[in-house]
Amino acid sequence: MKSKLVLTVANIAAVTLTAFLTAALLSCGKLDVVGNGSVTAFNQLLQQIPAEDDAVNAGWSIAAPDHSARFIWSRGYAESPVYDVMIEFDAAPFIAAGLSPEKLPENYVFSNGVIKTGIKFDGAKPKSTGETGPLAAYEHIVKLHRQLIGYHGALDHYGVNLGGGNLFEWAKDMTTNDKDMVFVLAPAPFAAAGADISQIEGWLFAPVTVDDENGKPVQVDKLLKPFDLPPPPPASGF
Known about the structure:
The chain is α+β, with helices and mostly antiparallel strands. It contains five helices and twelve strands. The chain is globular and about 45 Å long.
């Protein structure tokens, strides 16, 4: 009986220690598979398309190969004039399809021929780590606003939720995926503002499989602008 009691106490101690270590790992992000994986994949994207310093938006940007859209993320949230994380895209195809920009909801900003939509972090400042580059700025989003980062299993993508059904996504593995970078828009606000969704040049109107709040796959309509990026040049050897 005594040996059984000792074993039971030992088992309880082991379970308690395991729970404690698990909680500690979760608190410091060690077990955040999606968050950590998104950083690795985003770094690979930056190797393909180097980020540009965006002084106007106080951050960094990645431009689509055809320059029709950009993903922009802030380096210091208090300085961003509009949004801290956003996509910006050419308004001309939408206007040509019948869009009246002034009829868009307030989370869409039309100016200088482009439309911006995204999220403002209300001046919350990222914790300073001494790093100020584009990857570090993305890591701040993962650390401070983890709820915005997701994984899209149907396309094997990581992504940033920009609110209102809009997203920016990138491939988990660009060597095997034919959609390395995708700008994603909810079509309903544009349709309500007069655009013929099927006639927006450069954007694909298609159903996309996503997981609902219960984890069940459902199809939703999206406007997509996907890009298959060229592989990086082979490293030169000596």
